UniProtKB/TrEMBL annotation:
Pfam families: DUF3999 (PF13163)
UniProt protein name: DUF3999 family protein
Annotated keywords: Membrane, Transmembrane, Transmembrane helix
Superkingdom per UniProt: Bacteria
Source organism (scientific name): Rhodanobacter ginsengisoli
Membrane-crossing residue ranges in chain numbering: 433-453
Length: 463
């Protein structure tokens, strides 16, 4: 076999070319601008990371947070992805309420009695103009004031006289028209003999969906110890879920100060505000400076070189102790520069408060710590990791467990701000070389033509 005449360096080039794609995908600190230390006390297979304004400022807006990675102590990238939003947790519910008696005529065929809701959802019982037939009520209504899933209704023992025994069943409704049975009901008992007493005043509910309104009904031929003028006290116990409660609780509020007002080209006044970074804003509130003032504003997004309306907000202030206006929700958008435009002349610029909710990521503790978050890159992007599948294996069945929180620590430069900039394009020598070749070729052709022309002239002279 003939030895390969090529030098060792030349023979290594094919192997280097095969490894080049893998080397290009490897994460190095030189690919990112900044490094944030992550504190992970204790032991866990996964950790949560909540982004701070500083991380948002380090990330390029056009990267959509994909220029964020987590590396271990060996500098290796670990699985890292946005954390899916957890379903809302049930909140315990407990309310003191009164039983609203339904007139006896409504219990049979509803003659002359109307039960409806007002604009706030409160129960309104309209009596007929003519007096209803006398008699004790057999049904009572309850308003929980929100959609809840009741577990039980406890009647105040003081509302039960001695030697009381009757059976109550419970139904639920969301519109006071259609009712759903909620369990078998219960016998209400109050028997006292001296110091001895037997009492049962709890109605257990089961089945059915959450509802706002509940109704208690007597069993046929039973009589309750309350007339139509009495409203016994009861306690409602159960739970409810509020999808917005968790989001609102996780919000961070920022108070922004306006730059000097400027006159808009089409009339009116503009007030400009700047956030510390492009944050995911989802609500806003305007605080007017002067008392007894009202104004209508357009909230505008000024990022990207053009204005985009996010919301119309009317702000009112009637005295120093009037309280603040409710916040106005906006479609969640990452924005750093906001503008308020109004046609109402104001003596002082308004204060703008914005609510933002940090994005939450999760990473798997692959390799040894300490772990670091690398942020900000012009070209490097994080891969897609199916972290949710790993969390399902870690999460106990039926539990709403979430990984513990890893807090962001000190920041240091990785590659520095240069990693956020487009790399300088090297000088393209091939174009110059091509022009040299073309010019050289043209000169050679011209030289050859000139030589042939001179030879032709010599031949003509010799003749």
């Amino acid at each position: 076999m003939r030895p390969d005449p090529r030098p060792p360096t030349w023979r290594a080039w094919p192997l280097l070319c095969l490894l080049l794609p893998f080397a290009a995908g490897a994460v190095t600190p030189a690919d990112y601008a900044y490094r944030y230390a992550l504190a992970t006390p204790g032991r866990s297979a996964a950790w949560r990371v909540e982004l701070t304004p500083a991380v948002y400022a380090a990330s390029r807006p056009d990267a959509h947070l994909r220029d964020l990675v987590v590396v271990n102590a060996q500098g290796q990238e670990v699985p890292f992805a946005p954390l899916s939003e957890a379903p809302p947790r049930p909140q315990s519910f407990r309310l003191q309420a009164t039983l609203l008696p339904l007139p006896a005529s409504s219990a049979s065929n509803g003659t002359g009695v109307r039960v409806q809701r007002n604009s706030n959802g409160d129960i309104v019982i309209e009596q007929p103009s003519t007096p209803a037939a006398s008699g004790r009520p057999s049904q009572w209504l309850l308003d929980a004031h929100r959609r809840v899933e009741l577990d039980r209704i406890e009647i105040d023992p003081l509302a039960l006289p001695a030697d009381s025994r009757f059976h109550l069943s419970a139904q639920s409704s969301d519109d006071l028209q259609s009712w759903v049975e909620r369990g078998q009901g219960a016998d209400i008992v109050s028997v006292r003999r001296g110091v001895e007493a037997v009492e049962q005043h709890t109605i257990t509910l089961s089945g059915g969906a959450p509802a706002r309104y509940y109704r208690l009904s007597l069993r046929a031929d039973d009589v309750a110890p309350w007339d139509s003028a009495q409203t016994p006290r009861v306690e409602l116990r159960g739970s409810y879920t509020d999808p917005l409660a968790g989001r609102i609780a996780a919000r961070h509020w920022l108070t922004l100060t306006a730059t000097p007002a400027s006159t808009a080209s089409g009339g009116g006044v503009n007030y400009d505000y700047a956030l510390p970074a492009a944050l995911p804003v989802e609500a806003a509130r305007i605080d007017l400076a002067g008392d007894n003032t009202v104004a209508r504003f357009s909230l505008l997004d000024r990022d990207g070189g053009s204005e985009r309306q996010l919301a119309m907000i009317t702000a009112v202030r009637l005295g120093a102790n009037e309280g603040e206006d409710p916040s106005t929700a906006v479609a969640t958008v990452r924005v750093q520069h906001l503008r308020l435009h109004t046609d109402t002349p104001l003596s002082q610029p308004p204060s703008l408060r914005v609510a933002w909710r940090p994005d939450v990521f999760v990473f798997l503790a692959e390799g040894d710590g300490p772990y670091s978050l690398l942020a900000g890159s012009y070209a490097a992007r994080r891969g897609d990791y199916p972290v949710d599948a790993a969390l399902e294996r870690l999460r106990p069945a039926g539990a709403d467990w979430q990984p513990p929180l890893a807090t962001l620590g000190a920041v240091s430069d990785a590659a520095g701000a240069s990693a956020l900039m487009a790399p300088k394009t090297p000088y393209d020598w091939t174009r110059s070389l091509l022009w040299l070749v073309l010019i050289g070729g043209a000169l050679m052709v011209a030289g050859m033509a000139w030589s042939l022309l001179r030879q032709a002239r010599r031949g003509d002279d010799q003749r």
